[in-house]
């Protein structure tokens, strides 16, 4: 082992840890202030420790309702957009066909267009077709802006991916769908996961486009932006903290069960793409 | 290249394409018409094919376009410098924690941007935990401030777009066959050379994807200039102008025209970029 | 949603609800009395109920769909939200049998107006029966014929109790379309320890000594209003030349980086943290800040004048069949009971005469019962829910801009913002 190896052996994990600290710095403050006991409307100066926010939050349907709705919309739009986007990504990297250029254009432009224009133009369409705004229109708009992000991420996975495995699979199973399920899907799964995470983050945090497609329905970002005029109550921090907690529990369980499954599989795996 | 069954790519593309055609292309087509209208709310807007609006808004706001592109380029560069080592570590050192680390990268963004930025403002305030400490230690001038400066806008963009760089980089790095790297390490004298000639080249699709996912939305961003940049007149972006024209001034034609200038400009840059890095070639397998 | 089962109230919750209604106790006082927690977990909602809470309901009878700003009403955090978490609205529903679907969907005046306009220009109903926007939105929508007229004969409480300053506003001189909801004053907030001297005028804010350490507002009307006043011009009568002069004054200030930024409500934490030594500010915010976040910060109405603002109840076009019921709800807020409960909780300027006295009575009652904390808080609230004569004399209102003027003013202001 050279000196360079040892250096990068330490430097990289340390750097990664620092980036994680950077990412979570504001989140740590958020968690801290979920235990704050502010006497006024604003929750920006530390005034004493309390757990009561974790109790009172459950009798604030004005906050929990929009959050539940945002979570549901994010989950559904992530699943749909990831499915549609993955299909498009496969088509664009695995096949050569007429109209590729036009498809590329259709994928990149939605990321370029300012949100206000996307949102307002959609509202005009809903109004002119007499579509009642609410859950459905929010969902449609979120799927729309998520697709592009999914396609680009999936393509990063697929392009340059060694195809010999898939070809071997085709020889083995002779059936396209089985090859896809047993070979292609596991190969691109990290891409699907990454794309899904990005889509979820985009959806749960969207303000501008949602504003125009929401009608009388209220999502979490809409509520939070509104309440920031008078001061964000600590219950909002509580809910943010709980989301993180649930996600951490979820991955803890995943990792734990993954480790057990990993033990059953013998030996180091140096397979392409895993 | 699979050309045996020509209908398959179209079948795969159809659902997503139809979705984007109905819920994106049609409304945007309408906006294109709006950009060519004249009028106001009380008299209504009439389509006068006012193409002159385009040179007008470009002449008026070209500096802000340039500034926004500059900010977005800086953001892309910084997120790349932070994101690449991070993605590399997750992909090659992550072991069974790969997915955990991936989720950790995105988790802060499951919390509303209003909360994230409010807390950043508390951390980064003039005498807050970062700069207050540095000032107490005498490292920084007491008059130094960070929020409401161009640097703070780029900082906000960097923070908020970091996952959009890291995740695509990760998915590209993670697929690289380690045996190739081992072989290269044997072949080339230094590890750096091996990295540059093999790992980096093979991760290029991720670099392209990550930089596009960061750069493209960052150019049109307005929220960071508004709440980290605090509406400082020297650091607002073109997105803020579009926002103001549309929301506050009811000047829909100008807002739409600015948006299309932005779309076309960014698409042109993207075309040049993908040609330069040769992603056309890279996307072939 | 129609078929969400109603949660049965437990005896404890019933007792609390009764107490909330009878005593008009405020939230903090209540927390002190009932002790924290305990009850609330029982009121935890099921997922369907959560979704129902943020989608329009359609129970039997009339339901008024009301869009308001978040945190702009009294809320009962402790007991079961049934039918709403807002005690005053519950009381209205009980009294009248009219349902209210209260939605906290206004995030920003301009944003909100943009979401309504496409429907209104197409002659559609907006889905809202009652909205609560700022004055200029009322003016703009009224001018465009997008608001229903109010029938004053159906407003006994308003006729009897409306405060003088709350009627005949600049944007709606005859209250044709609107009634005052809550209001406040835009002036200057500053920390004398950091400025080292008193701030008394808008020009003090422009003192080069403070370059880069003061904040402006991103709101065109507030910012031009204060600047015009500093030039000795009453905003209501300002001509385009006057506004251009005001713009020049602000652009000169920009040249030397006078304003660190043109803030939205995020000025609050910048001012409280001391990043800004002084900033354009809302009176209600600075009261909060002084009480809870930074005792040093003071509010001042500039000697050359501050700006008055208020939000208003109005009925968008298309809500014709519920007009009578909506006006009943609007008038309800002019009953002393409802107005007092509301003001004790949110503490902005009320439009109802007599509220201040009622809050003072409550403060005295709290003092008698030995609850000093509540008494003090109510006394502070009582003093701030009504503008003083001085405040009214030295504050001004926005100009009633026609559309062309508004476009010109906006264009000028966009340059100030850096465009």
Would you mind describing this structure in some detail?
The complex is a heterotrimer of chains A (274), B (285) and C (419). In chain A, 74% of the residues lie in helices and 0% in strands. By secondary structure, chain A is mostly helical. The radius of gyration of chain B is 23 Å and the shape is globular. Chain B is an all-alpha fold and 285 residues long. Chain C has helices spanning 11-23, 27-34, 47-53, 87-96, 109-121, 135-143, 156-161, 192-195, 202-205, 220-230, 240-255, 267-272, 283-293, 323-332, 336-346, 355-368, 372-384, 389-393, 403-416, and strands at 63-67, 99-103, 130-131, 178-190, 214-217, 259-263, 278-282, 298-300, 306-314, 349-350, 395-396. In chain C, helix 4 links the parallel strand 1 and strand 2 (99-103). Chain C has 419 residues and is of the alpha/beta class. Chains in contact: A-B, A-C, B-C. Chains A and B meet through helix 1, helix 3, helix 4, helix 5 and helix 6 of A and helix 1, helix 2, helix 3, helix 4 and helix 6 of B.
Summarize the structure.
The complex is a heterotrimer of chains A (274), B (285) and C (419). Chain B has helices at residues 7-35, 53-93, 98-106, 113-124, 131-136, 150-174, 178-187, 191-202, 204-219, 223-227, 238-248, 252-276, 279-283; strands spanning 37-40, 44-47.
Summary tags:
heterotrimer, B: 285 residues, mainly alpha, two-stranded antiparallel sheet, 13 helices, 2 strands, globular, C: 419 residues, alpha/beta, 8-stranded mixed sheet, 3-stranded parallel sheet, 11 strands
Task: Tell me the layout of helices and strands.
The complex is a heterotrimer of chains A (274), B (285) and C (419).
Chain A: H1 3-33, H2 53-56, H3 61-94, H4 100-112, H5 115-128, H6 135-158, H7 164-173, H8 176-204, H9 208-213, H10 220-227, H11 234-264
Helix pairs in contact in A: 1-11, 3-6, 3-8, 3-10, 4-6, 6-8, 7-8
Chain B: H1 7-35, E1 37-40, E2 44-47, H2 53-93, H3 98-106, H4 113-124, H5 131-136, H6 150-174, H7 178-187, H8 191-202, H9 204-219, H10 223-227, H11 238-248, H12 252-276, H13 279-283
Antiparallel strand pairs in B: 1-2
Helix pairs in contact in B: 1-12, 2-6, 2-9, 2-12, 6-9, 7-8, 9-12, 11-12
Chain C: H1 11-23, H2 27-34, H3 47-53, E1 63-67, H4 87-96, E2 99-103, H5 109-121, E3 130-131, H6 135-143, H7 156-161, E4 178-190, H8 192-195, H9 202-205, E5 214-217, H10 220-230, H11 240-255, E6 259-263, H12 267-272, E7 278-282, H13 283-293, E8 298-300, E9 306-314, H14 323-332, H15 336-346, E10 349-350, H16 355-368, H17 372-384, H18 389-393, E11 395-396, H19 403-416
Parallel strand pairs in C: 1-2, 1-3, 5-6, 5-7, 9-11
Antiparallel strand pairs in C: 4-7, 4-8, 4-9, 4-10
């Amino acid at each position: 082992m050279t000196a360079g190896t040892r250096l990068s052996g330490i430097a990289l994990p340390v750097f990664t840890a620092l980036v994680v600290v950077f990412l979570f710095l504001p989140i740590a403050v958020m968690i801290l202030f979920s235990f704050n006991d502010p006497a006024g409307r604003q929750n920006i100066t530390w005034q004493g420790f309390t757990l009561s926010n974790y109790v009172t939050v459950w009798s604030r349907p004005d906050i929990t309702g929009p959050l539940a709705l945002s979570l549901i919309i994010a989950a559904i739009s992530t699943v749909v957009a990831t499915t549609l986007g993955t299909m498009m990504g496969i088509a664009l990297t695995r096949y050569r066909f007429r109209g590729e250029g036009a498809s590329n254009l259709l994928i990149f432009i939605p990321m370029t267009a300012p949100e206000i224009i996307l949102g307002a133009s959609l509202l005009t369409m809903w109004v002119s077709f007499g579509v009642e705004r609410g859950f459905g229109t929010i969902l449609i708009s979120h799927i729309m802006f998520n697709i592009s992000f999914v396609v680009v991420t999936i393509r990063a996975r697929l392009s340059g991916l060694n195809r010999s495995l898939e070809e071997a699979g085709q020889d083995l199973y002779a059936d396209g769908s089985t090859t896809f399920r047993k070979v292609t899907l596991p190969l691109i799964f990290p891409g699907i996961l990454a794309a899904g995470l990005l889509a979820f983050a985009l959806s749960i945090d969207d303000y501008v486009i949602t504003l125009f497609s929401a009608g009388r329905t209220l999502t979490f970002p809409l509520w939070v932006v509104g309440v920031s005029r008078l001061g964000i109550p600590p219950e909002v921090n509580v809910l943010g903290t709980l989301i993180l907690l649930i996600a951490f529990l979820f991955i803890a369980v995943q990792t734990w069960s993954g480790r057990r499954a990993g033990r059953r599989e013998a030996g180091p795996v140096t397979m392409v793409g895993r | 290249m699979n050309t045996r069954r020509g209908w398959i790519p179209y079948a795969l593309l159809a659902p997503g394409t139809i979705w984007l055609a109905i819920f994106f292309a049609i409304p945007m087509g309408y906006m294109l018409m709006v950009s060519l209208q004249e009028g106001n709310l009380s008299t209504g807007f009439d389509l006068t094919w006012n193409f002159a609006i385009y040179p007008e808004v470009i002449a008026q706001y070209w500096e802000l376009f340039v500034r926004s592109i500059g900010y977005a380029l800086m953001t892309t560069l910084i997120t790349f410098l932070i994101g690449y080592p991070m993605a590399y570590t997750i992909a090659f050192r992550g072991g069974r924690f790969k997915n955990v680390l991936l989720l950790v990268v995105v988790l802060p963004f499951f919390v509303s941007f209003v909360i994230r930025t409010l807390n950043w403002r508390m951390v980064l305030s003039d005498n807050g935990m970062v700069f207050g400490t540095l000032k107490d230690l005498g490292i920084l001038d007491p008059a130094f401030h960070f929020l409401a400066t161009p640097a703070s806008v780029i900082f906000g963009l960097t923070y908020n777009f970091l996952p959009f760089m890291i995740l695509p980089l990760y998915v590209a790095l993670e697929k690289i066959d380690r045996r190739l790297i081992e072989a290269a390490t044997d072949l080339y004298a230094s590890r750096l050379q091996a990295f540059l000639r093999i790992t980096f080249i093979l991760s290029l699709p991720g670099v392209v994807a990550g930089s596009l996912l960061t750069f493209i939305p960052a150019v049109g961003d307005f929220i960071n200039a508004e709440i980290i940049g605090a509406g400082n007149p020297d650091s607002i972006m073109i997105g803020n102008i579009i926002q103001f024209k549309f929301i506050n001034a009811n000047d829909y034609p100008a807002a739409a025209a600015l948006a299309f200038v932005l779309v076309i400009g960014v698409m042109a840059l993207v075309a040049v970029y993908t040609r330069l890095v040769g992603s056309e070639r890279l996307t072939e397998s | 949603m129609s078929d969400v089962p109603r949660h049965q109230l437990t005896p404890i919750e019933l007792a609390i609800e009764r107490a909330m209604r009878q005593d008009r106790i405020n939230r903090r006082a209540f927390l002190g009395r009932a002790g924290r927690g305990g009850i609330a977990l029982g009121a935890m909602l099921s997922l369907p109920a959560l979704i129902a809470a943020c989608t329009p309901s359609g129970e039997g009878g009339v339901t008024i769909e009301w869009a308001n700003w978040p945190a702009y009403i009294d809320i009962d955090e402790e007991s079961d939200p049934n039918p709403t978490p807002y005690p005053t609205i519950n009381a209205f529903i009980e009294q009248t049998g009219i349902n209210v679907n209260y939605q906290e969907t206004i995030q920003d005046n301009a944003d909100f107006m943009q979401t309504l306009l496409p429907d209104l220009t197409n002659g559609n109903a907006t889905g809202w029966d009652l909205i609560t926007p700022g004055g200029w939105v009322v003016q703009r929508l009224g001018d465009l014929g997008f608001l229903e007229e109010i029938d004053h004969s159906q407003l006994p409480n308003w006729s009897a109790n409306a405060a003088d300053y709350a009627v005949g506003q600049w944007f709606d001189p005859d209250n044709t379309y609107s009634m005052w909801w809550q209001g406040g004053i835009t002036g200057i907030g500053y920390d004398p320890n950091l400025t080292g001297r008193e701030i008394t005028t808008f020009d003090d804010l422009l003192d080069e000594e403070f370059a880069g350490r003061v904040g402006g507002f991103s709101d065109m009307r507030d910012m031009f209003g204060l600047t015009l006043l500093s030039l000795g011009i009453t905003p209501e009568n300002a001509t385009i030349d006057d506004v251009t002069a005001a713009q020049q004054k602000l652009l000169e200030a920009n040249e030397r980086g006078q304003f660190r930024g043109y803030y939205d409500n995020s000025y609050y934490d910048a001012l409280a943290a001391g990043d800004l030594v002084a900033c354009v500010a809302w009176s209600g915010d600075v009261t909060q800040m002084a009480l809870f976040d930074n005792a040093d910060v003071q509010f001042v109405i500039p000697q050359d004048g501050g700006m008055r603002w208020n939000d208003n109840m109005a009925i968008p076009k298309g809500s014709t069949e519920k007009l009578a019921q909506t006006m009943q709800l609007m008038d309800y807020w002019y009953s002393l009971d409802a107005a007092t409960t509301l003001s004790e909780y949110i503490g902005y300027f009320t439009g109802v005469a007599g509220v201040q006295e009622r809050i003072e009575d409550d403060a005295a009652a709290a003092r008698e019962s030995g609850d000093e904390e509540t008494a003090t808080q109510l006394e502070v609230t009582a003093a701030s829910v009504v503008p003083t004569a001085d405040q009214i004399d030295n504050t001004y209102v926005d100009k009633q801009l026609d559309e062309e003027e508004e476009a010109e003013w906006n264009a000028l202001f966009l340059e100030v913002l850096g465009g």
